Amino acid sequence: MTDRDTDIDLKQLAERWVAQWNEPDPAERRRLIRELWAEDGYQLMVNPPEEMRAAAARLSVPFPALEIRGHDALAERVGRAYEMFVGTGEFVFVQPGEPVRHAGGAVAVTWEMRSRADDSVAGSGLEVLTFAADGRVRSDHQFVA
């Protein structure tokens, strides 16, 4: 992703980002991941699930950020999120705002997990993405609200 990329590129990036989380077909999900992510790309869950934070607090240690690296691990991560939230028919992931380009080529993408029943927001977060030379996602720092 370079400074010469257009806003249309950012919109397409956000659409592809959300699509990977909502895709029901595992083979298509893997294809989306390979297309979107660099081979050694990684997601860093800056604030991991509450259960992990609570376990760390019980041990009086800081909670660790979780790193998911490479296409196979990312496919497992995205697939599990799909099974837990979208595959149940209860939720869908949406991108509520516009992606924002930041200094150094980083892009911020917001998301919401919405109820299919009443469109209420059940969760939300922010992804801060950086890119490899080929334009695919190199790193994703995920912040879940």
Assembly classification: single chain
Which structural class is indicated by helix and strand composition?
A: alpha+beta
Question: How is the main sheet built?
Answer: 7 strands, mixed
Our estimate of the beta-strand percent is 25-35%
CATH class term:
Alpha Beta
How would you describe the shape? globular
Q: Which H/E pattern describes the elements?
A: HHEHEHEEEEE
Mean pLDDT: 92
What's the architecture, going by CATH? Roll
Low-confidence stretches: 1-6
What is the fold named in CATH at topology level? Nuclear Transport Factor 2, Chain: A
Q: What count of structural domains?
A: 1
Distance between the termini: 26 Å
Radius of gyration: 15 Å
Report helical residue fraction: 25-40%
* Tally of helical runs: 4
Summarize the structure.
With 145 residues, the protein is of the alpha+beta class. Helix content is 36%, strand content 32%. The protein starts with 6 loop residues before the first helix and ends with a strand.
What features would you describe in this structure?
This is SnoaL-like domain-containing protein. It comes from Nocardia aurantia. InterPro entries: NTF2-like_dom_sf (IPR032710). This protein is an alpha+beta fold. The chain has one domain: Nuclear Transport Factor 2, Chain: A (Roll). It is 36% helix and 32% strand. It is built from four helices and seven strands. The chain has helices spanning 7-22, 26-36, 50-58, 71-86, and strands at residues 37-45, 66-69, 91-94, 100-101, 107-115, 121-131, 137-144. Strands 1, 2, 3, 4, 5, 6 and 7 form a seven-stranded mixed beta sheet that branches. A hairpin with a 5-residue loop joins β5 (107-115) and β6. 21% of the residues are buried.
